[in-house]
Every structure is written in C-alpha cells, then in structure tokens.
Design brief:
Helices cover about 70% and strands about 5% of the residues. The protein has about 675 residues and is mainly alpha-helical. Helix 15 crosses helix 17.
Length: about 675
C-alpha cells in the first residue's frame, strides 16, 4: 500500500485520537471541579449564597442609585437592612423552636392515647400484639442470665453478698471543675462557624454589588472577548432575568409562607411562625419542598389534637394553597417554569445535596438556573443549556430523522398530529420531514449510513406516510369561520392567513379524460433510497389533494428499466433529488423520460437545503425539464396548478362548443 493511500487513515486516526484526548481532559476537569466543590464547600457555600443574595438585592441598589444615592452607601444600606431582617427572622425562629421543645413532653400523652386507640381497633390489634409479643420474647432472650457454670474473668470485681453471690462494686468517676476559660470556649465554639459563614456572606455580597461591572467584564474575558457587544448584552440580559426571577420567587415564596403561617395559627397549630418560615425556605425546592414543609405541621397536629380535626384542616390548607400558588399565580407572574427540565431539577437537587448537604438542596434550583441562563447566552457554556434547560435538545427535523433511524414512525406520527392541529400537512412535510431527510442525505453523502440503514429509513417513511394519510389537509376542516354577528374580525384574519398555506384539492369530475388514469402522477427517486423516501411523502400528499401518484425507485431510471415503466395514464412525472451534485444524472434521466413519455410534463424536484432560485433555474435548464421546484409543497402546487389549468381548458372548450351550437 502506498503512503498516499494510508494518509486518510492516518488523518482519521489522528482526529479520533485528538477527540479522545479532549474527552478525557474534559472528564478529568469535571472530576477536579466536583472535588473542589466538595472539599471546598466551607468557602463555596458562602460564595454561592452571596451570589444569589446579590441577584436579589441588585434591583434595590439600582433604585437607590436612580435617586442619586451614592453607590457605596446604597450597597451598604441595602446589605445591612437585608441581613438585619435575616437575623431578626433567625432570632424569632430560635425563640419559637425553644418554646416548641419545651412543650413537646405535654404532647406525649396525646400520642400514647392515639396509639392505644389504634391498637384497640380490630384491624390493628392482632398485628400490633403479635409484633409486641415477638419483641418481648427477643428482649427476654437477650437479657437471660448466663449459665451458672460460666467462668468469670480473673479481674472481676466483686463485693460481699449475704446470699453468697458476688455483687459488683459501683464506681463513680468525677472530672475536675472546668475553669472560666473552658466554660467560655464551650459556649462560643458552636457559634464560631455560623458567625464566620455569615461574615463571609456579608463581605462577598457587598463586594459583588460594588464590583458588579468589573466581575461582569472578567466573566466576559473568560467566556470569550471576540464579540464584546454580543457577550456584554447577553450577560446584562442574564443578570436582569436572574434578578427578576429570584426576587419574584422570594416574594411569592414569602407570601406562601405568610399564608401558611396565618392558616396554621388560625387552625391552632403550635409555633405557626416556625412552620411559615420553614415553608418559605423549603418552597425554593421544587416538587418536594412543599411536601417536606407540610410534613412537620401534620406530625405536630397528630400530637397536639386528641382528635383528627387539626390534622384534616392542616392537610386541607396545604392542598389548597400550594396548587393555587404553583399552578395559577406563578404562571401568571413569571411563566410556567424556571427554564429547567424536570429531570434536571431532580438531578441538580441530588447533585448539590450530595455535595453540600441540606443547604445544597435549597440552592440546587437557583444555582442550576444561573448555569442554564449563562448557557443560553454564552457560546462556550451552551452545553449547560442542552443538559439542564427545558428547551428540546433536538429540533423537530432532528427528532423526525432520529425516529426514522430508529425505525419508530409511530412517535413521529404522534408529533405530526400535534403540528397538524394548527398547520397544513404540506407545511409539516417541508418544515420538518423533508429537513429531516436532508439531514439523512448529508449523513449518506459522507458514508455514515450503510444500505441497511438507508432501507430502514425508507421503510419507516413509508409507514409514517401511511399513518398520516387519514389526516384531512383541507382548511375548511380545520378553520371554520362563524357567521354569528359577534364573530371577531381578528379571527377571520387569522383563519384567512392560515388557509393560504393549504393546497387546493382537485376534483376528478372536472378533469379531462387523459387525467383520469389510476395514477396520473408518476414520482421517481433520483439516485438513492433517501430520494425514494422523499418521493413517498410527495406521493401521499399529492394523492391527498386529488392527484393519485405512484412511486418508483432509482433503479427505474436506468437505460434498461426506464422503457419498462408502466406509463398508462401518466400526465406528470416528478423527478426527486435531495442532492444537487449530479446535474449530469438529472439531464440524462430527463432525456430518457422524455423518450418514454413525450407528452408528460416533467417536473424536476430538487429539494436541496437552502438552494438558490437562480441555481434551481440553472439545473432546470441544464436538465431540459419543464418545471422545477425547491420543496415538496411547491412541487404539489405545480401539479395542482397544472390540473387546474386542464380543468379551465376543458371548461373553456365546453363553453366555446355551447356558444357555437347556439349560434
């Protein structure tokens, strides 16, 4: 083998090696970052809290700056007020918890009575008593004294006994009284870590608010400074969106906590303020936060109330307030979601909780929202939006192509039905299905699809076309204008504009005799099975609009097979290509078809992605075709226009004969 023939293999091997090394480096970097987040959580947790608080406090700082308050004074004032409020809430929470802890022994008798009442029920008595007897037997077995013949150790300490059995001598160990400094250290040590964390948060919040523009510029440099205008606008937009989102969430969750606290106070649940604050904090955790917040008051209601009234009222409170806030108020205020996919929310909660514990659970959603917003605006971080965002990871054409590759046309047909509720079938074929086949053509051109996969795609497209064949593609079946006097003119305008994309349906009764064959339209695949798949979709759409069409594969265009084509009743021939790289093939194919069908109208369907109209006209002239179209819908439109012209010709001829006869 010559060196020239080995070069492509070497180049491919080098590219694969580079890609492998890049993947390994990325994985190592990810492991290092996760390790840093875990082992450096004492620093990163305060920093993360400070960043989130800065997003919440930034609007207040900007408001003070607009009324000409110096920036430093505005930042310090807002920060001090915010932390003073946080400290006040913490103090109130501590007081309530202390009072609750002192009252807990009083609730023991209530719980015992309910357990006894449950045991007395016929359903629970047998099971509980059997479990209790089993535990008692196990306890007796464990506490049974050793056999009398068991040996004792030589160092056993015994004392005198009147019965002759040795009695253990009690020993009491007393520590010396600690000094004043030791008592002070014992008192202060539990407070050192929270105070240090709070101090770090305060300092970071103040510096982030003071140096907001400088931090933004440094982030721009890290993300890429090749397009300063775009990156700056993106980050400013991201900061505004995050500030608005977090501030709105804080207000809504605080309102949720206030309503829960007031409701529990009215119901009579002890320490209602504690549960209101807990509901506010835990509601930052999506899906499960409100459930966790409800568990504590429900358990306390069982312990406090001798009956079950308090439990039922507490349950009703949470079941009423949470759906109203989550499904009515939140969508009206800031949309239906935070921009995160449900799987991403669960994964993020698991990840951050494993790294940072309970505080990570609370911070999981805000931190992931920050990452997704940055991923949507910064090109290098786009993978974050793909991984965690709620936008579809694949476009509709990519989903169609992937389903055809997987041999699963049913899912593609289901998504097509959703599309067809508002748009036409021709629009779906052109905007989704045809673009999906163009992706397949690109893969086939670079050798990524073997004949087996190409056949699988063709067969899946045939099944898909059969699944959507019963879809009515007439605008009258989808958009019906009311004749009521109160009908809106806006509705009529929308319906008329939407009807423009629907193709006319040809009636066979008005067609001339040469159009009344079984298949007046013959659709031929140009070169590949991908072309044949596109031809199958065209045939289905053409048949749906009154012009029955049949499909022939690319083999039918060979010199031997072209004259074996069944040409009876064929009026229009459509030649389909999804690749414009073979103008010679187009020319010779049209020439053979012209010999076989001299009276037929030949349409060159060059359905290539983003083909230029001038380039399409050049291909038509070169191939000597009658007409050319750049899309599936446009090709069907040319066919229906030809049929309509034939109808008009027949009508004009009939009218002329009638006039002559009358004369």
């Amino acid at each position: 083998m010559t060196p020239v023939s080995r070069q492509p293999f070497k180049a491919r091997t080098t590219d694969e090696l580079v890609a492998l090394l890049s993947t390994v480096a990325t994985a190592i970097l990810a492991v290092i970052i996760v390790a840093m987040l875990y082992f450096g959580r004492e620093i990163f947790v305060p920093v993360a809290l400070a960043i989130l608080l800065s997003f919440v406090l930034a609007p207040a700082v900007l408001i003070l700056q607009r009324i000409h308050v110096p920036r430093g004074l505005a930042v310090v004032s807002v920060a001090l007020l915010a932390f003073a409020f946080i400290f006040a809430m913490g103090s109130l929470l501590a007081t309530q918890l202390t009072q609750l802890a002192g009252d807990l022994p009083r609730y023991q008798s209530t719980i015992s009575e309910k357990i006894q009442a449950f045991r007395d029920t016929r359903a629970g008595r047998g099971t509980l008593e059997r479990a209790s007897d089993m535990l008692k037997d196990l306890s007796k077995e464990i506490d049974r004294p050793k056999e009398s013949g068991s040996a004792r150790g030589p160092n056993s300490m015994v004392g005198p006994s009147t019965s002759g059995s040795p009695v253990p001598v009690p020993v009491e160990v007393r520590l010396p009284d600690p000094g004043a400094l030791e008592n002070l250290r014992t008192l202060i040590s539990p407070l050192v870590h929270p105070l240090a964390t709070t101090g770090i948060i305060i300092i970071f919040v103040i510096f982030i608010l003071l140096q907001r523009e400088d931090l933004r510029n440094r982030l721009i440099r890290l993300a890429g400074s090749y397009d300063l205008q775009r990156t700056t606008a993106a980050l400013d937009d991201a900061a505004r969106r995050l500030s608005r989102l977090f501030l709105t969430q804080l207000i809504l969750n605080s309102a949720f906590g206030v309503v829960i606290g007031l409701g529990l106070w009215v119901i009579g649940t002890p320490s209602a303020i504690v549960w209101g604050i807990l509901a506010t904090v835990l509601r930052f955790v999506p899906y499960i936060g409100a459930v966790i917040a409800a568990a504590f008051p429900l358990a306390l209601a069982v312990a406090v109330d001798p009956g079950w009234t308090m439990l039922l009222w507490t349950l009703a409170l949470f079941l009423t307030v949470e759906p109203i806030v989550g499904h009515v108020i939140e969508p009206m205020v800031y949309g239906h979601s935070t921009g995160l996919s449900p799987v991403a929310v669960v994964a993020a909660a698991t990840f951050w909780t494993a790294l940072w514990g309970p505080i990570g659970l609370v911070l999981a959603t805000p931190l992931t929202v920050c990452l997704v917003v940055l991923g949507r605006h910064v090109e290098r971080l786009e993978f974050l939006d793909v991984m965690f965002g709620d936008r579809p990871a694949l476009s509709p054409p990519e989903i169609f192509y992937q389903r055809m590759l997987a041999g699963d046309p049913a899912e593609a047909a289901e998504k097509a039905e959703q599309f067809l509720k508002e748009r036409s079938l021709a629009s779906y074929y052109d905007e989704v299905a045809l673009k999906g086949l163009q992706l397949a053509q690109i893969d086939a051109a670079r050798g990524a699809l073997d004949p087996e996969r190409l056949t699988k795609i063709r067969d899946a497209v045939r099944e898909f076309s059969s699944d959507v064949a019963d879809q009515d593609d007439r605008p009258s079946a989808r958009l019906q204008l009311t004749t009521d006097a109160e009908a809106s003119s806006a509705l009529e305008s929308v319906a008329e504009n939407a009807a423009d994309e629907y193709l006319p349906v040809i009636s066979k009764e008005d067609l001339p005799s040469d159009w009344l064959g079984e298949y007046p339209v013959l659709c031929l695949a140009g070169r590949s099975l991908i072309d044949e798949a596109a031809a199958i979709m065209f045939a289905q759409l053409s048949t749906a609009h009154g012009l029955a069409a049949r499909v022939e594969g690319a083999d039918s265009l060979s010199s031997t097979n072209v004259f074996r084509l069944e040409a009876t009743g064929v009026v229009i021939v459509v030649l389909v290509y999804l690749d414009s790289s073979g103008p010679a093939h187009m020319r010779y194919s049209v020439r053979r078809l012209r010999r076989k069908l001299p009276k037929a109208t030949i349409i060159l369907g060059c359905w290539v992605k983003d083909i230029d109209p001038d380039a399409l006209e050049v291909l038509r002239d070169n191939a000597k075709a009658d007409l050319a179209a750049a899309s599936l819908g446009q090709t069907v439109k040319l066919c229906t226009e030809a049929a309509a012209a034939a109808q008009q010709s027949i009508a004009a001829s009939t009218q002329e004969k009638s006039t002559t006869a009358a004369a």
